[in-house]
Amino acid sequence: MFNLIKKQRNESSQQSESKEDSVDWKTKLRNGLKKTRSRLSEGINSLLLSETAIDVSLLKEMEEQLLAADVGIEATDQIIENLKIKLKKSQLLEPDEFIHELRKELENILEPIAVPLRLDARDKPFVILTVGVNGVGKTTTIGKLAKRFQSHNHSVMLAAGDTFRAAAVEQLQVWGERNNIPVISQTTGADSASVIFDAYQSAKSKKVDVLIADTAGRLHTKDNLMSELEKIVRVLKKQDPRLPNEILLVLDATTGQNAVNQAESFHETAELTGIALTKLDGTAKGGVVFAIAKKLNLPIRFIGIGEKIDDLKPFNAKEFVNALFS
User: Fold this and answer.
1) 312 vs 286: CA distance, rounded Å
2) Kind and range of the H or E element at 247?
3) 8 A C-beta contact, residue 279 and residue 137
4) Closest CA to 280 of 308, 254, 309
5) How far apart are CA 100 and CA 94, in angstroms?
6) Taking CA atoms, which of 44, 58, 90, 137 is between 20 and 30 Å from 190?
7) pLDDT of 15-57, one tens digit each?
C-alpha cells in the first residue's frame, strides 16, 4: 500500500514537472521568436491596421512581409494563393478572420514535417549521424541531445568523428565528462569513418541504447566533405543495412535561405532523415522553417532556443505558429 501511494506521488510530481516545463518552454519559445514575430506577424498586423479593406493589394504587400521573414518563395506562393481563394469567397472580411486563416495556412505547411524522432528498441545502438557546416551549433546540439536521451533513461555514447578540427574533439569530450557519457575519439586527422566504426563496435558490445556521431563541418573542399560523409555511411551500412538510423542535419536559423541551400546540398549526398534548427532566438529569419518544410519536406526533429542544456525541444507546428502570433 505504501509503495502504491509512493508511486502515485511520484507520477503526480512528474506530471506537475512536465506541465511546468511545458509552460516554461512556451514562454522561451515566444521570447526566442521575438525578432521573427516582429518581422512577420507584427508587420502583417500593421498592414491590416493601415489598409481600409482586405483585398488583393493587401495580399501583395503581405507577400513582401512573408518573403522578408525568409518564409521562402514556394511557401509564400502557397499561402497567398490559398488566401486569394478564401478572399473571393468572402471569408476574409475582418482582420481577425484574416489572421485566423493565415495561421491555419502556416500550420498546414508545418504539420506534415513536425515528426518527432523515435528510437526503435530493436536497434541497439540506435545510431544518429549528425552533419552540418562549422558554426551551426552541431557539437552543442549533440551534447543537448545526449542529455535529453539520458533524461529518458537511455544509455548514450558519443563518437568524435570530426577529426579535422581538433577543438571539435575537445568540445565533445567536455560534453561527455559533464554528463558522464563515454566519448570514442582518436588523434586529430584520423579517419572519421574509422572512429565511428570503432564507436559502433564499442556501443554494440556494451549494449548502449544510443550512439551519436559527430562529423566534420569543413574539409579542404566541399567535395572532400561530401565524400567523407558517403564513406561513413558506407562503413556503417556494412555493419547493418539499416544504419545509420538517423542522419540529422543541424542548421543555423540566422543564415535564412542559406540554411535551405545547405540542406539541399547535404540531402543530395547523405539522404537526410531529419533536421535540427538552432539559434532561433537570435534571428528575424525564423520563417525559414516554412521554407525548409515546403522545399525539402524533411522532418524537423528539434528546434533550439538558447544555450541552456534543456533549450533543445521536439518541434511542434502549432506551438511554433502560436509563438509567432503571441
Assistant:
1) 15
2) strand 246-252
3) yes
4) 254
5) 10
6) 137
7) 444 444 556 888 989 999 999 998 888 888 887 877 667 888 8
Domain coverage including residue 61: 35-113
Distance CA 47, CA 81 (A): 18
Residue of 301, 246, 319, 312 whose CA lies nearest to 278: 312
Q: What is the CATH number of the domain that holds 226?
A: 3.40.50.300
Does 75 share its domain with 140? no
Task: Tell me: cis bond preceding 244? Omega within 30 of 0 counts.
Answer: yes
CB-CB contact of 263 with 271 (8 Å)? no
* Tens-digit pLDDT profile for residues 184-196: 999 888 999 999 9
CB 244 within 8 A of CB 146: no
d(CA 321, CA 31): 13
Nearest partner of 83 among 112, 114, 47, 115, judged by Cα:
47
Single-letter code of the amino acid located at 235: V
Alpha carbon 153 to its chain's center: 22
Cell 514535417 belongs to residue: 113
Asked if residue 118 is part of any domain, the answer here is no
Q: What is the mean pLDDT of residues 117-137?
A: 91
